[in-house]
Write a structure and sequence with these properties.
This protein has three domains: about 210 residues, Spore Coat Polysaccharide Biosynthesis Protein SpsA, Chain A (Alpha-Beta Complex), CATH 3.90.550.10; about 70 residues, no CATH class; about 110 residues. Strands 1, 2, 3, 4, 5, 6, 7, 8, 9 and 10 form a ten-stranded mixed β-sheet that branches. Strands 12-11-13-14 form a four-stranded parallel β-sheet. The protein starts with 16 loop residues before the first strand and ends with a helix. Helix 1 packs parallel to helix 2, helix 7 packs parallel to helix 8 and helix 11 packs across helix 12. By secondary structure, it is α/β, with parallel strands linked by helices. The chain is elongated, with a radius of gyration of 27 Å. It has 16 helices and 14 strands.
């Protein structure tokens, strides 16, 4: 199917489809996405709407360069960063096309999927929105993951099918919608992601169609949007959209509702742990492992293995948090022992604001701890270090104490000294 086929006739007076792009500080990616849209829809029937979330980079220059290339182009620059979903809402509010589709600033569309959705909306007035699948995409290599279809054949959901829609799909991303319906009833804001709230509002106004076609390629851009999975706000907004959707339906069996919501949110906890590991935020990963554990998302063997692998790095992070709480600390000294050297070196790599070194028992007993220094021993008040108790936790921390605050399981460790020595 050619890009200038009858699905998108040249209608310069009013655009058929508005493609809404919310962006923030990714000028180079935005330029590639706008070029892709221009190449994919060369006629005058597509409107591009860009909302810039007060980007500090060259985003405005990119917008100015591409605006003349489209017959229909609208943009707005926020006076401050309003957050992701309010920025999406701002783009949608400017759309003037008959139909609207929201596109991330680093993604690309599948023309055939968009065409199929638009054709349904044009020929079937009862349909208010069309959802489709996607494909994961690595922009640098061009490689595509397997197609992630929502359905194998088209399925329609009428206004009375809210619960059936909810039970059928874990998540529904941006649909192609009738613009007037979308603008009148969407509620994207910073209280939830709003995807399910939107689905609920749409299905109250007509039929929602779900098709097997792929609508877009989801780019795995660095830094990935999924890195936000390590933040508490992400999980609150993710859970909120399910609760708000079901809250609009009304009182049901609260136990069944709790199970349904937990099934959807716990899987995102495991993703939070995954991306926290990738970001080397091990205490954050621990939090998500802990939150997942009561629901059986991991086996006990998996948790025990992760705990062993991450324990030293969690200790270093926790220690850094403690040191930063102490006032007027300039240097951190570790007990001079082979079992502490790996931890010391890793700590130094994540704490560049402090000078890091070692302190021998002889020097400690002879001179004590210099002003502005923080001491790290293996055990609190251990032989040779008995006077650390006089310093107290404000100027001295014991690794054994910190280990206890990083534990998940009750497994017997027996590996920590070697791990502390070999941390990298």
């Amino acid at each position: 199917m050619a890009a200038n086929s009858d699905e998108f006739p040249v209608t310069p007076a009013k655009p058929l489809l508005s493609i809404c792009i919310a962006t923030y500080s990714r000028a180079a990616l935005l330029a590639q996405t706008l070029q892709h849209v221009r190449d994919t829809f060369p006629g005058n029937d597509v409107e591009v709407v860009v909302s810039d979330n007060c980007s500090p980079d060259e985003t405005q220059q990119v917008i100015a360069r591409f605006a003349p290339l489209f017959a229909h182009f609208r943009s707005i620059r926020q006076s401050e960063n309003r957050g992701m979903m309010p920025n999406v809402a701002a783009a949608i509010a400017l759309a003037t096309g008959e139909f609207t589709y929201t596109l991330n600033d680093d993604d690309e569309v599948f023309f055939d999927g968009i065409s199929a959705a638009v054709a349904i909306l044009r020929s079937e007035p009862a349909v208010v929105a069309v959802y489709g699948g996607h494909q994961e995409w690595v922009r640098a290599s061009g490689s595509l993951g397997p197609p992630e279809k929502l359905v194998e054949q088209r399925e329609d959901f009428a206004p009375g099918d809210k619960i059936r829609l909810f039970n059928r799909f874990l998540l529904l991303w941006y649909p192609i919608s009738r613009t007037q319906i979308l603008q009148r009833y969407f509620t994207y804001d910073d209280r939830s992601f709003g995807f399910w709230e939107l689905a609920g509002a749409l299905i109250e106004r007509g039929t929602v169609a779900v098709i097997p076609n792929l609508l877009y390629k989801h780019a795995q851009t660095e830094p990935r949007m999924e890195y936000e999975l390590t933040k508490a706000w992400y999980h609150d907004q993710h859970r909120a959209q399910y609760e708000c959707f079901l809250g609009r339906v009304g009182l049901g069996n609260y136990q069944e509702v709790s199970v349904a919501i937990n099934q959807r949110t716990v899987s995102v906890y495991t993703q939070g742990a995954r991306f926290a590991n990738l970001k080397k935020e091990f205490l954050t990963a621990r939090q998500f492992v802990l939150r997942s554990r009561p629901y059986g998302a991991y086996t006990e063997e998996q948790i025990a293995s992760w705990e062993k692998q991450a324990l030293v790095y969690m200790v270093a992070e926790r220690l850094l948090n403690h040191v930063r709480l102490a006032t007027q600390i300039r240097g951190v000294l570790f007990e001079d022992a082979p079992r502490m050297r790996g931890l010391r070196d890793y700590f130094a790599s994540i704490a560049p604001e402090f000078s890091v070194g070692s302190l021998s028992q002889h020097d400690w007993q002879a001179s004590g701890l210099a002003a502005g220094c923080f001491l790290v021993t293996y055990d609190f008040g251990a032989p040779g270090w008995e006077q650390t108790t006089a310093l107290g936790p404000t100027r001295c921390r014991a690794v054994t104490d910190i280990i206890e605050s990083c534990r998940i399981t009750n497994q017997t460790l027996g590996f920590e000294e070697q791990a502390l020595a070999q941390a990298s």
